[in-house]
Structures are given as C-alpha cells and as structure tokens.
Amino acid sequence: MTESVIVAIITAIGAVLGQWIISSASKRKQTIEEAKMEQRLNDRLEQIERKIDEHNGWGDKFATFSTDIAVIKTEIKGIKENMK
Known about the structure:
The chain is an all-alpha fold and 84 residues long. It is built from one helix and no strands.
C-alpha cells in the first residue's frame, strides 16, 4: 500500500470515530433532557392531582354543609312556629 492510501484509511477511521463520539454525546444529552422533562411533567401532574383531591374534599364538605343548612332551616322554622 502506498502512503496516501494508509493516510486515507487512518483519516476515514478518525472521521468515523469522531462522528460516533459526537453522536453518542448528543444522544446522551438528549436522553438526559428527556428525563428532566419527564420529571417536570410528573411533578406537575402530582400537583394537579393534589389540587383535584383538595377540590373533591371541598365538594364533600359542601354537600355536608348543604344538608346541615337544610336541617337548620327546618329547626328555625319549627322554633318560629312554636314562638307564635
């Protein structure tokens, strides 16, 4: 083999290795960014679920309040009738 062929082979190997290293680093960086994004989305989803749970709790409380208010109205009406 001539010197120019050997140099061309070494250059080609270097170029392929360089591209492989660049590609691996880029893929690793992209995977890390995707993991961070997924974690942020999971955190946000958990916050939303907590807010929904709080909201549902208030709904139950208001249902109880509504029943209690109806009972109180009935009792007040009875008291007013007894006072007459």
